[in-house]
UniProtKB/TrEMBL annotation:
Alphabetical UniProt keywords: Oxidoreductase
The protein's name in its UniProt record: Alcohol dehydrogenase
Pfam family, one: Aldo_ket_red
Organism placement in taxonomy: Bacteria, Pseudomonadati, Pseudomonadota, Gammaproteobacteria, Enterobacterales
GO cellular component, one term: cytosol
Gene Ontology molecular function terms on file: oxidoreductase activity
Organism: Pantoea coffeiphila
């Protein structure tokens, strides 16, 4: 089974499936051989939009960043499937030794390093990983614009920008005739709604941006596997999940997900993703997996059509 429906990323002309695969697991919770099998399965199922970043996975002891891109690059070289995937990566997070931010000279250095690790000559979507208030937006955008003209990048996006700064960046692009951010990558899920819905969503809808949101399953909480404090032991990030989400509102959301899932013979994970996919301003939520069974489950989420009553119930229990 492969997912057939596609959506356009903003006005870029790039068509992507209904889910984005988060490559933060490559070189972290998935070693190279596991990562290769995951990438093969993702392409086979039509989930061929892969999002990574130069900083992945610097947080792992012994890693320095670039591990995820390196694994993807090794897979691209071995498989020859560059034309089968839409490849997104990011620049701007701290890699140490002053390698951080969105100054023109640094973007130039970072994009060459990413292209080398990825073993490709172009990146489909190159994203500012976070806002850099020390660099004028116009300088950053002019550099991205030049990379597009040179054929190294097809489209650009922004991650972790505030509504005001995103609006300002879009205005500068329009006024100066520069390439604009076609996508936004915000935190968004059934539990964490307010940050996106209270300001960013209006900007996105006004300008026709694509949205590829991260933490779409609230670090696994919306899968329904954390129902009591001792469930924290179930994963590497369990303690933080339990502390943030395991409260009355969180449990109400999970119970509603379970209820809807049972009615559709689906899983809470699939329902949580289907609710996001059904939101008009969301293009393709970002999800990760470390096993082929999980990839299969994610692919099925793209086929799940919730009823209006399902969507209403989930929106009501998760209201903030």
């Amino acid at each position: 089974m492969s997912t057939s429906e596609h959506r356009q990323l903003g006005r870029s002309g790039i068509q992507v499936p209904l889910l984005t695969f988060g490559g933060n697991v490559f070189g972290w919770t998935a070693d190279q051989s596991t990562s290769f099998s995951l990438l093969d399965a993702l392409v086979e199922k039509g989930l061929n939009f892969i999002d990574t970043a130069d900083v992945y996975s610097r947080w792992v002891p012994g890693n320095e960043g670039g591990e995820s891109e390196t694994i993807i690059g090794n897979w691209l070289k071995q498989s020859g499937k560059r034309d089968k995937i839409i490849l997104a990566t990011k620049v701007g997070m701290d890699l140490g030794d002053g390698k951080t931010g969105l100054a023109p000279k640094y973007i130039r250095q970072a994009v060459e390093a990413s292209l080398k690790r990825l073993q490709t000559d172009y990146i489909d979507l190159y994203q500012a990983h976070r806002d850099d208030e020390d660099t004028p937006l116009q300088d950053t955008l002019a550099t991205f614009d030049a990379l597009i003209k040179e054929g190294k990048v097809r489209a650009i996006g922004a991650s972790n920008y505030s509504a005001d700064r995103l609006s300002e960046a879009l205005k500068i692009s329009a006024d100066a005739g520069l390439a604009r951010y076609e996508t936004l990558q915000p935190e968004y899920n059934l539990y964490d709604r307010e940050g996106y819905e209270s300001g960013l969503e209006a900007v996105v809808e006004e300008h026709g941006l694509g949205v590829i949101n991260y933490y779409s399953l609230a670090s696994g909480f919306l899968s329904g596997k954390y129902l009591k404090p001792e469930d924290a032991a179930k994963s590497a990030r369990g303690q933080g999940v339990v502390e943030k989400y395991l409260n009355d509102r969180g449990l109400k959301i999970v119970h509603a997900l379970v209820q809807v899932a049972e009615a559709h013979h689906a899983s809470p994970t699939q329902v949580a993703l289907a609710w996001q996919i059904a939101r008009p301003s969301i293009t393709a939520p970002i999800v990760s997996a470390t096993s082929l069974a999980q990839v299969d489950e994610l692919a099925k989420a793209t086929q799940l059509k919730l009823t209006d009553a399902d969507k209403r119930l989930l929106s009501e229990v998760s209201s903030y």
